Amino acid sequence: AAMSRKPGTFLVDSLTRSAKHFNKSEVECLIKLFDTLVARSRSHFAGAGFDRIVFRDALHSAFGMTDDVVLDRVFSTFDTHNKGRISVVEWVEGLAVLLRGTLEEKMKYCFKVYDLNGDGYISREEMFQMLKNSLLIQPADEEPDEGIKDLVEIDHDHDGKLSFEDFEKAVRDESLLLEAFGPCLPDIK
């Protein structure tokens, strides 16, 4: 009986299981959107995915995300196989966390976005890099470095860098810190 299933059913069922925050019809819609984006990209990936530019345009138009540095990092977190393109599996599973992830999943996702070099820590330099893009408006009497000094307070073990454990503790204490280094989640709307 499994052999007679129409093409695509296996993919839909598989993604409904792996991207556990979406039901079957939502997964089908996301696959159709993926196919539309692949067609729009006219890239050399030929059906296997779409590139950074199409991804950024999609997130910009769907969620109003505009920060280029953050969008590049979001692309990198979706592109789990580091192939320079987003596959259908990466697309659906990434959106599951982005749109409906648990607090735990969103913390891991945001931490990965901010960990620019992927070493498992957010260094002072990485904080500065992310903050200088997201802190566009500074109070007149506050130096940009002050915002960074305030955020270093969440370095609970005082080793000069944020581990995921530091980040998680800070976010659990104050949920606004989830996007402390720049907006990388869509608005609740």
Could you provide a short overview of the structure?
With 189 residues, this protein is mainly alpha-helical.
CATH-defined fold name of the largest domain: Recoverin, domain 1
Helix-strand topology string? HHHHHHEHHEH
- What is the residue-mean pLDDT, rounded to a whole number? 82
Q: What is the CATH architecture assignment of the largest domain? A: Orthogonal Bundle
**Which regions have little confidence, pLDDT < 50, spanning 5+ residues?**
1-7
In CATH, the homologous superfamily of the largest domain goes by the name EF-hand
> End-to-end span in angstroms?
42 Å
The computed structural class is: mainly alpha
Percent strand: under 5%
| Helix percentage | 55-70%
| Total separate domains | 2
State the strand order across the main sheet: 1-2
User: What's the CATH class of the largest domain, please?
Assistant: Mainly Alpha
Tell me the overall shape.
Answer: globular
- Output the number of helix runs: 9
Radius of gyration: 19 Å
**Biggest sheet character:** 2 strands, antiparallel
Organism: Pardalotus punctatus
Pfam families: EF-hand_7 (PF13499)
Protein name: EFCB1 protein
Keywords: Calcium, Metal-binding, Repeat
